[in-house]
Design brief:
heterodimer; A: alpha/beta; Rossmann fold; 6-stranded parallel sheet; 38% helix; B: alpha/beta; 2 domains; 7-stranded mixed sheet; binds thiamine diphosphate; binds magnesium ion
């Protein structure tokens, strides 16, 4: 088994986080899981005419990445958007409406699942082009820096995206200018059907490469939400204090196929033993055991959460399904911004006075 | 059935070239056969690209090639479009003949520096001492939320690049013959396919043959209006022509096959005959193939024109992801019929 789980589960996990925060992390993960399962269960009905890239199995990574951030901190995601969007606090109804390609979707039906955005919570956007979001986030950090705004700027991207030259150009620039960026790289060992060893030399680790580029770098167990949370919280503080960029490699495994609903292991591109190995450390169940052992959460608490989430999902799903379709008047809007930055002052003869 | 497949099948015309005799192959199988023949003929031909040896095998185009020719000649690559384009440029200069696939033309955009500013300029800059015999292949995506970043038909951006050839076949016969022609060509060649053609079937001869670039072909003869274009939109145009025939309008359909080089002679010939030119393209109407073809008519056979040149392509808007908006965005058989009728009335 090449890409089995190499972490330690929650065996050594100690944390100074309080009960409330720890419970919140659990709720957030469980919510993402159930929402994605709900979407997945309906996907074959072909009503959500958008590609989907599920994060089932990777929830601890998304939640650990976003939970330490404030609403003012920005996240710009890759094609694998759902988990990050929800973890950052993105509106569920707007997301599902976008999946249904409706007028009130978070991108007004022009984006689909690969372009989720909710500016009210700092979900700044996402790109369907691998690596495309990475320099954009460095630019967001530059803008914050130039304007004296204190915030961190995070991009989430995969091990595959990390092969794009532009990612390394962006890291170099961020390190050069000491910009407050967190490069959050979710290494799930695959790009579509292609395993990591066919794309990158085996003895070079991503986080070490980033370190050589001048970013403070760590690797975390992406199945352990506390591990991820603490690494991001530390990176956030450091980045805000002028340390420059951080690079976090979060090791995860996607339980589903690259895109669409269901598992695609039957295609034979990966060792089924890997998936069962990772399933043994389900980021949600193993964390629940940890919380339970520490008397922070009970079965009854969990049941109550399940009920809430189910009700929330069902309501939002129906809302989205019954939302209005866009029409012809929506097709060509916003190709350009209509705003004009500078008022041109003119004299009596209509000449510019600038 | 995965969504894309279902959509494509629903759109595929049953029997392109059904009247001709011979072995029938699907578009994808024709391309696969072309690659196989080229690799058998010449050990210098290699095939690389994201996922060429995975279960999807570039929509089936590269299926079985690695088993047949080995991992040294057929291999997957990192997500490094610009780098890989530079690498195949160097490899081509160094004496081998790479064929690289992209899942979508959108990914070619990451490699424009190497493609446009290096590969397409080397022969000229080196005064012919070096040449760059590579082929880059990509299929335009459409539907199911492909959207602004996964459906771009970028041929218009390439049509003005000196040193580059751009071909856009529309039938399995041409797909095979032009792939073989592209591999045989000593220049960088970009093949822009369309996903909605992949299940088309047609007569495809066995063995080696090439279809020359810059030589268009009549897909249909007619006398009232000439429709000129390439690739998937010709499928729609032929359907439109068939329906218009019943209404008494006779439409000629010309397949340019390659947009660079461009068969100016066939454009002039058909315009001289009908006097009315409708240019069609899967890309944006502005500044692209439509504009180029239309200009040939304006420049070279102006006096033959009996009506203003018209075009059907994409509006000056990025592709929306939503299904409803997509329906409004893309031209269809009706759009083409309407454009033709406007010209004859
Ligand atoms: C520049 C570019 N090349 C290729 C693709 C096609 N593509 C979409 S997702 C994907 C896999 C990316 O893998 P990774 O970055 O590891 O993210 P994961 O899907 O594993 O989360 C690929 C190759 C793309 N979207 N953009
Ligand atoms: Mg990956």
């Amino acid at each position: 088994m090449k890409y089995g789980y190499k972490g330690k589960g929650f065996a050594d996990t100690k944390t100074t986080l309080g009960k409330e925060k720890l419970t919140e992390l659990y709720y957030s993960m469980l919510r993402i899981r159930r929402i994605e399962e709900g979407v997945e269960a309906h996907y074959h009905e072909d009503e959500m005419k958008t590609p989907i890239h599920l994060v089932i199995g990777q929830e601890a990574s998304c939640v650990g990445a976003c939970a330490p951030l404030t609403k003012e901190d920005l996240v710009y995601a890759s094609h694998r958007t759902h988990g990050v969007y929800l973890a950052k606090g993105g509106d569920l109804k707007a997301m599902l409406s976008e999946f249904f390609c409706r007028k009130n979707g978070c991108a007004g039906s022009r984006g689909g699942s690969m372009h989720l955005i909710d500016q009210s919570v700092g979900m700044a956007g996402s790109s369907a082009i691998c690596g495309g979001n990475v320099p954009i986030v460095v630019g967001l950090a530059l803008a914050a820096h130039v304007q004296g705004v204190k915030r961190v700027n995070m991009c989430t991207f995969g091990d595959g995206a990390a092969e794009e030259g532009v990612v390394w150009e962006a890291i170099n620039f961020a390190a050069l200018k000491k910009l407050p960026v967190i490069f959050f790289c979710e290494n799930n060992f695959f790009s579509v059907f292609t395993p990591l060893y066919k794309r990158q030399p085996e003895n070079v680790e991503l986080w070490k490469k980033a370190e050589a580029f001048g970013a403070k770098s760590v690797v975390v167990d992406g199945s352990n939400v506390v591990d991820v949370y603490e690494a991001v919280a530390k990176a956030r503080e450091g980045a805000l204090n002028g340390d420059g960029p951080y690079f976090i490699e979060s090791r995860v495994y996607r339980w589903r196929g690259h895109g669409g609903a269901g598992d695609d292991n039957s295609k034979g591109y990966r060792d089924p033993a890997e998936l069962s190995d990772w399933k043994k450390v389900c980021p949600i169940e193993s964390y629940f055991e940890f919380l339970k052992t520490n008397q922070l959460l009970s079965d009854a608490d969990k049941e109550a959460m399940e009920k809430d989430i189910k009700a929330e999902f069902e309501e939002a799903y129906e809302f989205a399904r019954n939302s209005p379709e866009p029409d012809e008047s929506d097709l060509a809007t916003h190709v350009y911004s209509e705003r004009i930055q500078y008022e041109v002052k003119k004299d009596a003869l209509g000449r510019s006075t600038h | 059935m995965p969504w894309a497949e279902a959509l494509i099948r629903a759109q595929t015309r049953e029997s392109v070239l059904s009247s001709e005799q011979g072995r029938v192959l699907s578009y994808v199988d024709a391309l696969n056969e072309a690659l196989s023949i080229a690799m058998e003929m010449d050990k210098k031909v290699i095939v690389l690209g994201q996922g060429v040896d995975d279960p999807a095998a570039s929509f089936g185009v590269t299926k079985g090639l690695q088993e047949k020719f080995g991992g040294e000649r057929v291999f997957d690559v990192p997500l490094s479009e610009e780098g890989m384009t530079g690498i195949i440029t160097g490899a081509a200069v160094g004496g081998i003949r790479p064929v690289m696939t992209h899942n979508r033309p959108d990914f070619i955009l990451l490699s424009m520096n190497q493609l446009v500013t290096h590969a397409s300029k080397i022969c000229y800059l080196d005064e012919g001492k070096n040449n760059v015999p590579f082929v880059i292949w990509a299929a335009i995506g459409r539907g199911w939320g492909s959207g602004a970043q996964h459906s771009q038909a970028i041929q218009g951006m390439l049509v003005g690049v000196p040193g580059l050839k751009v071909i856009m076949p529309s039938t399995p016969f041409d797909a095979k013959g032009m792939m073989l022609g592209a591999i045989a060509d000593n220049n960088p060649v970009v093949i822009i396919e369309h996903r909605w053609l992949t299940r088309t079937k047609g007569v495809v001869p066995e063995g080696f043959y090439t279809v020359p670039f810059g030589k268009g072909v009549y897909r249909r003869r007619g006398t009232d209006v000439s429709i000129v274009g390439t690739s998937h939109i010709l499928d729609l145009s032929i359907r439109a022509a068939e329906e218009l025939e019943e209404e008494g309008i006779s439409v000629e359909v010309v397949d340019l096959r390659s947009i660079k080089p461009l068969d100016e002679a066939i454009i002039m010939e058909t315009v001289q005959k009908t006097g009315k030119l409708l240019v069609v393209d899967t890309g944006w109407e502005r500044g692209g193939v439509c504009a180029e073809v239309g200009f040939v008519a304006a420049e070279k056979c102006f006096s033959a024109l009996k009506a203003p040149v018209a075009r059907v392509g994409l509006p000056d808007v990025p592709t929306p992801a939503g299904y409803k908006l997509e329906q409004l965005y893309y031209p269809n058989v009706e759009t083409i019929k309407k454009a033709v009728k406007k010209m004859v009335n």
